[in-house]
What we know:
The protein is mainly α. The protein has helices spanning 23-45, 53-78, 83-89, 91-110, 113-118, 120-130, 136-147, 155-206, 233-252, 265-289, 302-314, 317-332.
Amino acid sequence: MSEPAAGPQPPLPPPLAPPTNRTWREQAITTAAQLRTLAEWVSLIDPPAGAPPGQASAKTALDHAITWHLNEASTVAEQKSPAIQTSFNGAVVERVLSQLDAAQVALLLRAPLDYVQSQLPGIQAHARQHLQRGDPHRVAVEDVVAASLGTPLDESGRMTLVAAFRASCLESREEFSRVRSFRNVLIMGALVLTVLATALAVAGWIRPEELRLCFEPAEGVACPTGSRPRPWDVFFIESFGLIAAAVSGAASLRHVRGTSTPYGLPLALAILKLPAGALTAVLGLQLMRGGFVPGLSDLDNPAQIVAWAITFGAAQQLFTGLVDRQAQNVLDDVGGKTGGTANTNGP
């Protein structure tokens, strides 16, 4: 029995590129591939050849624009740019996201009205998520959705949806920019506190007698590491303050939700707490030595000094807790115009 003749085989897909170094890059590459598939499908079901000359030229121009935007987004997302520079200035993220948004806008302009009408729920959810309730674009989308119930969408409705989707995309990227800006402030603050804590430890190492953390109870002298000041006393106390800050900070972060933005705001918060705890441990003991806390001026032994260092290190939460609340407000502003979740995939 002869075997049936093999028909033409579909071309094999190109080999997968190695993974990039960031999750947002992978999401952008996948989104670009999905939009490219949609664009090819639209060009097949609505080819420009049978349209009037002007309309055909417009469709061809939009096809080229969609391809260019998606190629630009994919190319930039696949590039291995320096991680620190990319994360700090946000230029690469903005380039990729803006190109993907532009491709989606062009796709809404290019696609048949039936397709655009099928995307009404997604566009409405996107506008609700990123635009304020009284925003004219959001109001216009609600009007188009109400008018389209049982009625085909017309070109005027398409242009209204395109304008609203473009406005909500812009607001979405601005929300990401605000998260990045606040995250950068936290990182710079943590860097300054780290430099100060390091300088304090170095000063204590060079001049332990002048920056001493010792107490003089009736029985003698009590220092963090014995009965006399040593060069590593300040570093020793800062270490316990840092550990206490890490523990208390980890507990406080349970109130800060995660983020789907490319910027690690919760991580920046956690980093800020570490040098803050190291500094509050040393400064708190210095306040006790100066009699600022009545009745707690004289500690009897190193164990008590370490215990109070841990207490002061954990107390950094009194200061950074205000930063935690502001960070939560910034995260809540990302897609939080309706107070709930919504689809952000767009068309």
